[in-house]
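To the wet lab folks,

You asked to see what we're planning to order before we commit. Fair enough. Below is the target structure as tokens, and below that is the sequence we designed to fit it. If anything looks off to you, flag it before the synthesis order goes out.
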């Protein structure tokens, strides 16, 4: 049997860090994950998934993540049953996190300090700057030359 989940989404609220009676850290949080397929004419659908992280993973999440941050979670899917306060039987599906990672760059997730930062993009009809990154999407096969192979490896 194989039970593995890899999810990337945004936290819907700040994570909650708690301690068990034995002092083990546990962190619960929910992420919003957009579905990859949207039928024509329909709105994009999003799944809201409950995640539970334990020990050092729990402390990591509570320290470095908050509402709206993108997160990558690797783990396994578990179900548990309980009876709520009204006596109804409930079943919960949770992802138990084995590994949690940042899913966006530090600059993309950093809050603005002072509000004076701005990003500039060229106008749609403006040519890119001379120091823009090299593009490999254009070219011609004739631009390449075949190298002589003397059978000797370069390493």
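Sequence we intend to order:
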């Amino acid at each position: 049997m194989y039970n593995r989940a890899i999810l990337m989404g945004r936290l819907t609220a700040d994570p909650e860090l708690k301690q068990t009676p034995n002092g083990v850290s546990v962190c619960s949080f929910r992420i919003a994950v957009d579905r990859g397929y949207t039928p024509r004419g329909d709105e994009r659908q999003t799944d809201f998934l409950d995640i539970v992280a334990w020990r050092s993973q729990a402390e990591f999440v509570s320290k470095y993540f908050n509402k709206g941050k993108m997160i990558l979670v690797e783990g396994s899917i578990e179900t548990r049953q309980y009876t709520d306060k009204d006596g109804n039987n409930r079943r919960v599906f949770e992802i138990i996190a084995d590994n949690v990672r940042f899913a966006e760059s530090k600059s993309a997730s950093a809050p603005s300090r002072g509000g004076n930062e701005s990003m500039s993009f060229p106008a749609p009809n403006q040519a890119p700057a001379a120091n823009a990154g090299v593009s490999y999407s254009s070219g011609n096969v004739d631009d390449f030359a075949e190298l002589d192979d003397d059978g000797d490896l370069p390493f």
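Structural context that might help your review: Confidence is low (pLDDT under 50) at residues 112-138. Residues 55-64 form the longest helix (10 residues).

Thanks,
Computational group
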